[in-house]
Amino acid sequence: IDALETFGGLSPAVVTKITDKGVRVHTTSGEDVQIEGEGLALVSRVLHDTKVGEKLKIKVGSIVRVMKEGESWKITQLPQVESAFVSLDPKNGAVRALVGGFDFNRNKFNHVTQAWRQPGSSFKPFIYSAALEKGFTPASIIDDAPISFPASFTGSGSSWEPHNFDGKYEGPMRLRTALTKSKNMVSIRVLNSIGVEYAQDYITRFGFAAKDHPAYLTMALGAGSVTPWQMAQAYAVFANGGYRVDPYLIGRIEDNKGKIIEETKFVEAGNDAERVIDARNAFLMTSMMQDVTRIGTAAKARQLGRSDLAGKTGTTNNHIDTWFAGFNPKKVAVVWMGYDKPQSLGGTETGGSAALPIWIKYMSSALKGIPDVDLAPPEGVSSIRINLKSGNRAREDESGFYEYFYQEYPPPEKGGASGAASAASDATDTDSLY
Q1: 350, 337 in Cβ contact below 8 A?
Q2: What are the respective helix, strand and coil percentages of the chain, to the nearest 5?
Q3: What is the DSSP letter of 411?
Q4: What distance in Å separates the CA atoms of residue 254 and residue 364, rounded to the nearest whole number?
Q5: CA within 20 to 30 Å of 135's CA: 19, 199, 398, 412, which one?
Q6: Which residues have CB under 8 Å from 118's CB, separation 6+?
Q7: Residue 262 CA: distances (Å) to CA of 3, 91, 250, 253, 298
């Protein structure tokens, strides 16, 4: 076993004895270790199941991987699944944490900067952001119903019948609810209304290249290509109120006398950084994404006990890529998980189950001791009570819910039409979709 390397703290060891109580191994460091109980959780089946094939059985002489946690040891294995993590300061782009993969010595590939993958639903906020500039509001009512596009529409020679991730359709719903529940049908209808060319141009404000996101309706489902580095930069725009900042790894380099040899020139949100989206847009999008972490697909984030978290999960077709991109005003962090050679992670793996726990673990440490930051509406935002079912302004004699709006796009009175409704009805090729 001396020829085998240790990767990520997982050391090779040879099995020297197997008993009813446990497994004894000899490690590369020369230790003889007895592993019992929970330390055998990964291999309990191959130890005791008589139906397991001979090649899979653990026996004396087998080579296994072991890891020490505290005072206990456990048998583990080198993962085939890879992951990437990057966190940055949304104010200036300073990278606070970066993990490019399981172990650089095993796989010399930085998944944060080099892995181009489909973002899935974690891309939807950029489509919704574009829609806000076209008159849609968080209260706009869009139909969550099946859609079928004929071959003549797609131009690909075949029809397209997209579906919601969970296969369920809930009918007309508010845009806020649709993002919270990650409804694909709503995203497609919204994109079709605002126009794919407009959306393709709009997303470049966040640092994405138009060529990586072809102007098709599949853009609404995150069918383009991104890197975790790009996603962190893009989500920073929401976190800092609408400014574009470039991520950087090294602030400055000093010699042994403290003389600065090289220093990064960076811009800061609110000062010299370029504003790329309206502050009101960033506010409304953050407000909607806060619901994702409170009652939506990322509700597990509530265990952090904070009120200032926002984000979006992402899971691509066949569970190939899983994402969580989330933030508060002080930290942006993006997690990706998948195989290097794209294949399914398994039918139950999603952004909420695979990627989100990594984000939660990081944020529990990174935000420790940092007080919650209240989300204050910027100038030009109105808070108006609406009817939850219609999205219209609530009458005095009916219950309602306060929602945020651009001042120029208030909710319609009962029977009226808002700017969003007008935009939807005037858009081409949408009559059959709404």
Answers
A1: no
A2: 30, 25, 45
A3: P
A4: 32
A5: 398
A6: 222, 223, 224, 225, 226, 316, 320, 321
A7: 42, 21, 9, 5, 41
Tell me, what amino acid is at 346?
G
One DSSP character per residue, 74-109 reads: EEE---SSEEEEEEE-TTT-BEEEEE-SS-TTT---
Residue type, 51: K
CB 394 within 8 A of CB 383: no
Matching residue, tokens 């929970």: 38
Q: CA-to-CA distance for 30 and 48, rounded, in angstroms? A: 27
H or E stretch covering 264: none
Q: Which residue has the higher pLDDT, 331 or 424?
A: 331
Distance CA 210, CA 202 (A): 9
Task: Report the range of poorest mean pLDDT among 91-105, 150-164, 420-434.
Answer: 420-434
Q: Is 283 exposed, middle or buried (0-12, 13-18, 19+ CB in 10 A)?
A: buried
- For the whole model, what pTM was predicted? 0.88
Burial 137-168 (b: 16+ CB within 10 A, else e): bbbbbbbbeebebeeeeeeeeeebebebbeee
Rounded Cα distance, 346 and 327, in Å: 27
pLDDT digits (tens, 9 = 90+) for 68-94: 988 889 999 888 899 999 999 999 999
CB 127, CB 178: distance < 8 Å: no
Please state which of the ranges 54-58, 248-252, 299-303, 381-385 shows the lowest mean pLDDT.
54-58
Contact 126, 413 (CB under 8 A): no
Token pair recorded at residue 134: 């076209």
pLDDT, tens digit (0-9, with 9 covering 90-100), for 120-177: 999 999 999 999 999 999 999 999 999 998 877 766 678 889 999 989 999 999 999 9
* Residues, the chain: 434
Residue 390: which residues within 8 A CB-CB, separation 6 or more? Answer: 141, 414
Token pair in block for residue 72: 């206990």
Beta pairing class for 274-275 and 310-315: unpaired
